Structures are given as C-alpha cells and as structure tokens.
Amino acid sequence: MKSTAALDVSGLPEFGFGHRSLLWWGTICLMAIEGTAFALTIVEYMYLKGRVPHWPPGFAAPRLLWGTTNLIIILASTLPNQLAKNAAERFDVRGVRIWMVVCMVFALAFNVVRAFEFTGLNVWWDSNAYGSVVWFLLGMHTVHVMTDFADSLVLTVLFFTGPIDEHRFVDISENAMYWYFVVLAWIPIYAVIYLAPRVF
Amino acid sequence: MSRELTGTPEFLDADARLTSEALEREERQLRDTWKYARGFFGWCAETDHKRIGRRFLVTAFVWFAMAGVLAAMMRIQLSRPENTFLGPDLYNQIFTTHGTAMMFLFAVPVWLALGIYMVPLQVGARTMCFPRLLAYGYWMFLFGGIFLFLNFFLNTGPDVGWFSYPPLAGPEYGIGKRPDVWAQLITFSEVSSLVVATCIFCTVLKLRTPGMSLNRIPLFVWSMVVVSAMILFAMPAVMVSSTCLILDRLVSTHFFNAAEGGDPILWQHLFWFFGHPEVYIIFLPALGAISEIISTFTGRPVVGYVAMILSLIATAFIGFGVWVHHMFATGLPQLGQSFFTAASIMIVVPTSVQIFNWIATVWSARRLQLTSPMLYALSFFFIFIIGGLTGVMLAAVPLDRQVHDTFFVVAHFHYVLIGGSIFPLLGTVTFWFPKLTGRMMDERLGKLAFWILFVGFNVTFFPMHLLGLAGMPRRVYTYPASMGWGDMNLLASIGAGIMALSLLIYLVNVVVSLRSGALAGDNPWGVATLDGATASPPPPYNFLPQPTVGSREPLWHTDIAAPAVVGLAPDKREVLVTHVLDAEPDHRYEMPGPSIWPLVTALSTTLMFVWSIFSPWGAVWGSIPIAVALIFWFWPTRGKSPERLAADAAAGQLTPREMVS
Question: pTM score, two decimals?
C-alpha cells in the first residue's frame, strides 16, 4: 500500500466571518462597482455644473427638510445595523430577529421619506440637464436602498421561518456591511444634491 | 531562485498520510458528489466552471464568426469604387454591429471564458467561487448576443458606430430603436462581464491551494486578476453613460442635450473612461497567456516575474488615465491634451518591460520549441509592436488631428487588437485545446493556418495605414474612383479573403482534432502550472488529491515537498478556502450545486431589459419577476428551524466562535 504526505484540513471550521468569507469579497467587489458608479455620477454633476454660470440653473435649490431628515434616519440606522451584525457573529438568533426588524423599520422609514425627497427637488428630470443629473443621482441611491431593503427583508423572514444554519449568520454580517456602504454613499450624495447648490 | 520562493511554509509540514486505498475510496465518492447534471434540464442548471467556460468559449467564437462575416461584407463593398453591393443604411448597421459584437461579445468574453476554465485549474481549486452567479453571467452573455443579432436581422441593428456618440445617437437624430439596441446590448454585456470578473477575482484571492502565496501565482492568473479589477472599475462608466443615453431617449432627460445645459462631450468622457481601459481588458489576458506559452516552450520561467506583474498592474493604472487621447479632435484645452499625450506615451514603459523580459526569456531558452502556439506568441511581437508604434504616433496631438477618423486609425487598432489579442488567443486555444478536449490539435494544419493568417492579416491591414494617410475616412460605404483609393482597397479585400481562408483551416483543424486528434495525456506540453497535474479534460472535481505547491513552478520542482490536501468532505461539494496573502488554509466551504434559478433570473432580466427599451414602466414592472426569481435562487433548501438553531447555540453545539471570527 503506497502512501504520501498529506495536509489534513478536516479540523477546520465550515465558515468564517469578515474577510475570511467568500461572500465578504463578493460584497467588496459589488461595492467597488457601485461606488465607482456613484463617483462617476457625481463627476457628471460637477461637469455639468462647470458649464453654466449659475447653479442650479433656473431653479431653486432642493428643499433641505426631507434630505436632512433622511440623513439623520440613515445615520441612526447604523446602530441597529451594528447590533444585528454583533448578534449574528455571536450566533444569537433572538438578537438577529430583534435588530433586523428594527433595521427594517429604519429602511422603510427611509424609503417613505425618500418619496418626499423627490417632491422637494424643485425640478423635474426633463426640465434641464441639472434636473436630469439630480434625479439620476437620487434615483440611483434609491435603487440601492430599495434592493437592500428587499434582500434584508428576505433574510429577516428567513430568521423567523427557517430553514437556517450557521452560514446565514455570515449572510447577516455581510448584509450589514453592505448597508454601511449604502449609508456612507448617502453622505457625499446628500452633500452634492443639497449643499452644492447652496455653497457654490 | 531564492530559498523563500521554493521553501515550504510551516503550515505545509504535514504529518498526516494519504494511502492509495483511501484515495480510491474518495474518488468514488467525489465522482458521485460532483457529477455533471444530465439531460436538458441538467444542461440548463449546470454550474461547473469547466462546462460553463467551454460554453462561453464556443458562444464567443460563434459571435466572432458572425462579426467576421460582417467584416467580409464590408471588404467586398469597399473592394472597388462606387460599389453597390451594400447600401449606406445597411453598411452603417454592419460596421456598428461588427465593432460592437467584436468588442463586447467576443474580445472581452472570450478571454474571460478561458479564465473561467483555466483559473481554478491553475490555482489548484475544486471549482470556482460563486458557481451559480457564473452561470447567470453566461446566460446574460448568450441572451445579449442573441438580442443584438436578432435586431440586426430585423433591420433594427445599431447604426451609429460602436461608441454611439450623441447627438447622432440621441433622441433628435437617432430615430427608431437602433441606438437603444446598442445601449441595451451594453447593459447585457456589462452585467455578464462584471459577474464573471467578480467570480474570477474572488476565486484567485480565496480559493488558491495551500502554498500558493501571492508570489507564486502563475502569470496568466495574475493577468486575469488585474483584468477583473479593471472590469470592476471601468464597466461602471459605460453603465452610467449608456443608462443616461437611454434616459435621454426614453424619458427626455438632457444629459447630452447642449440646448438644455447638457453636453455631448460628456458622453465621450464617460465612454472613453470605460473605452480605453477596455482595450487593456482585452489585451492583458493575452500577455498572461503569452507568458505561459513562452515559459513552456523555452523550458524556463519567464524572466523577471515581479517586473512582469508590476508591469501588468502599472498598465492597468495608467490605462485609466489616457482616455482623452480618443478626444483630441474635440478642441479640449491644450494643457489637457499635453497631459494625456504624456500619459499615453507612458504606457510604453510597462509594455516594453514585458516585451524585453520575453525576449530575454527566449534568448536564454533551455530548449526552444517552435510549436504553433509559440508561433502565435512570437507573431505578437511583430504585429503588436507595429500597432504600438502607430499608437505612439497617434498619441501626438498634431498627427492625431491629421488622421483622426481615417483608415489610419482603423489600421492602428486592428494591429493592436488582432496582434495583441487575437493572435495570442488562437495560440492559446491551440495551447489549451488538449486540456479542454483531451486531444491535440494537428500541428501541420495549425502552422499552415498561422502562416496564412499572418500573411492575410498584414495584406489586409497594412494598406489601411496608407489609405488613411491618403485621406480615406473610416465608416464611408463607398468612394469615387477619382480619389485613387481603389487599388489599396482591393489589396485589403484580397487580404481579408486570405484571413477568412486561414480561419477556415483553423476551424477544420478544431473539428478534425476533436474527432481524431492524438490523445493528449495530462500534461502534453510539459507546463509548470497545476493544470498539468490533472487529467485532460479534468474530472468534475478537478483534482484528486488536491495538490499544494512548494514553488512557483510546482510541476517542474517535483523534488520540493508539497503534501496532498486531505479531509475535505467527499460527500459534499466542499472546497478549501485559504487566506489572501499566503494561501494558508482557513476554512472548508460547501459550494452550491446545479440550479435552474440562474437561468430563470437571466430570462426575467432579459425581459426587463427589452421591455425598458419601449417603456420606462418596463424597468419597474420588469423588476418584479427578477426579484421573485432571486428569492427562489437564494432561499436555502437545507437547515434547521430557527428555534432548533437557537437551542443548539445555547447548548454550545455550534462551531466555536473563536474559530470563525
């Protein structure tokens, strides 16, 4: 009977959190893609702004109320988000349930206020190029908030209905990381949409 | 080679043993666990990277053949002055569809296809990261190609050039749905490329076999990592711009409408911010493949491994800073033009480093074998350097202004793309044909096809330099006899015929070799990389046992101890996940098996994309079936009830936390 030297890996765990997991790296790639898209849209905004003497051209700046409200909501949402992440990383099913539901309430509130944000832009997408780029920027972020809301909802439901195993805790953890990206993206986009027309 | 590159890291000090008996037992189980899905349903649900890679490759070559026929039709039309073979409208659709298909449906995907097949084999992995996502990427690629050519045959093929400039492509001049077809094809191909890039990127970072630290990754794999990263940052630019174009056309936004504060030049900036890196996305994998071929047929590692990798990365970075050289004729400020001239010329540096390293490798060959893959690799030097030199010429603003939009540019980019990518590609397909099919391609036919192609290519495209200098603009469907361009055009058309003949011989070689080529064995060329350590074609689980590596050329340094991996569950599709830098074993991970949902999701995505050409509500209502399909895709089929899992957690029966975080 022949035999060769072997590296036994049977004692290793079947998953890992953070940068050890495949999903983390997949999410990083997604964030690179989406982050570049956001950045280029901001570049588009600045480019168009540089072509006219007055900004915003021909329209009042967007209302601060709803956008700022949403900034507060989304910053506050990082708290339940982190608590859900912590709960997942200590395999706490009850904690995940509680904090994911709280996250869902925040995301829902954000989406509702977002509808008001669109009405407070004071310009239509087909009014001029300024209107187009503002709607596009806000629309792109909205797509992210809505899709993240939908997929977080599926995960939350899963934690009430099953079937789940340890891998789903990793999903919750990576989902929380992606929400941080959506939050962090909103800060510069908020500044561009609401502050740039006032500052410049 | 220094000690650290060949030494065995501590974690590879194996004390376990693998007996031949255990190996046989494991093989039986693995064959059952990883078996390919059968039947039509199984074909639709397939997630194996080799099957998908092969499909990807064949599909890309089908689009290549169709775009090639379009090229031949253009050459027939231009072969003599005032020809009436094609009318102007059809000619516009033909050159646009040719360029669009070649760039988006062939040149990028075909290398991704080879990456999908070879990367997991070269890094010693059982499969690819995110296999279902990979399947989705393939379906989107397939449906995108069908979408483009279907529209072409319905006389709604795009007709405003492969870069689709507004205002010609905007709502005012681009009447009908033709520019929308172009913009939506871009969406298909970008989704596909982004998905595949993510899969390749994560595979290389996390699924490398133990011992394959960053400084032992094969050069082809390095090139695929760099290209994947480029795709992640370049594709969003065309994603943003093509979406804005669709919005301008569909819901009257004004991004590119100068009358309402928009700017058509903005389109050019965004498009070329993608478009120039795209050139390197096409070309860098070829560089990686050339390194593999040259190393194999000189019998030595490529000179300057680290310099080669740094050059790839440098090219990728600089590639993002040169886009304006496509826009010199738009009247940008002179300082900007000078900056982009300098940046464009800077590309010469990393490219030259690689070329000199290859020359040094060939120079110091242990045993030089002029096989047909090697001929293709060497022809790259000749053709690509001509293309590179005209590139340096075009980077100079005064010359660029003179020959902008002439056949000189057409000649330049065909030299760069065909010389830089297609010649190496045909060589690489010959090189890896045995791994893909288990059989060798015929060398005599291979060399014949090569030489005919080499002659045909130069006869076709060299005269175009002269035509461009003589003032012949590109994209004209005909020209008057008095211009004196007739002879050169006829010569170019004859060359195109010769190229077609050689590609036909290549195809015949493929078909004949598939049936009756010599059996290849595991490693017919004697490669140094791990793909030579498994059968041709590899079994569904790729390796048994999974090898580890103790050096950069594991199959050439068999004296260095590299223990086999044991302990992965053979009754699950389990893979070994390793750390990013040193590929130290980290955890075991069960990969998902075949699934029909990627196909269903791709079909519903296609519905949404096509619907939204006609109505903005298509994007709204069309996203509902996608969401439903995605939920079915992700919904787990196995697991416990949450209560049960919570009880297990409370009882401390889950994996200890310190092991996983």
Answer: 0.96
Q: What is the mean pLDDT of residues B584-607?
A: 96
> What does the block give as tokens for A87?
């709960």
Contact call for residues B512 and B527 (beta carbons, < 8 A): no
**What are the pLDDT digits (tens) for B501-545?**
999 999 999 999 999 999 999 999 999 999 999 999 999 999 988
CA atoms within 13 A on the CB side of B325: 28
What are the start-end ranges of the E strands in B314-358? none
Residues of chain B above pLDDT 90, percent: 85
- Give the 3-state secondary structure of residue B485: coil
Residue A37 contacts B where some CB pair is shorter than 8 Å:
yes
CA–centroid distance for B315 within its chain: 17
Residue A34 confidence (pLDDT) above 70: yes
B14/A6 CB distance under 8 A: yes
At a CB cut-off of 8 Å and minimum separation 6, what does B292 contact? Answer: B218, B219, B220, B428, B431, B527, B529
Provide the β-strand partners of residue B578. Answer: B585
Q: Which helix (H) or strand (E) holds B578?
A: strand B574-578
- Name B406's bridge partners: B473
Distances (CA, A) of B147 to B142, B169, B185, B483, B615: 9, 19, 7, 39, 17
**How far apart are alpha carbons B374 and B368 in whole angstroms?**
9
The closest CB to that of B255, out of A32, A40, A129, belongs to A129
Beta bridge partners of B18: A4
Please compute, for residue A154, the number of CA atoms within 13 A of its CA located in the half-sphere on the CB side: 18
Cis omega (within 30 of 0) for bond into B545: yes
The separation between the first and the last C-alpha atoms of chain B, rounded to the nearest angstrom, is 37
Those of residues 75-134 in A touching chain B at CB distance below 8 A are 89-94, 97, 125-133
Q: Which CATH class is domain A19-50+63-199?
A: mainly alpha
Residue range A89-99: mean pLDDT, rounded: 95
SS3 B589: strand
Spatial CA neighbour of B192 closest among B96, B116, B99: B116
pLDDT at B655: 87
Chain B residues inside the 8 Å CB shell of A45 = none
ipTM score assigned to the predicted complex: 0.96
Task: Tell me the residues of chain A between 133 and 192 that have a Cβ less than 8 Å away from chain B.
Answer: 133, 135-136, 150-151, 154, 158-168
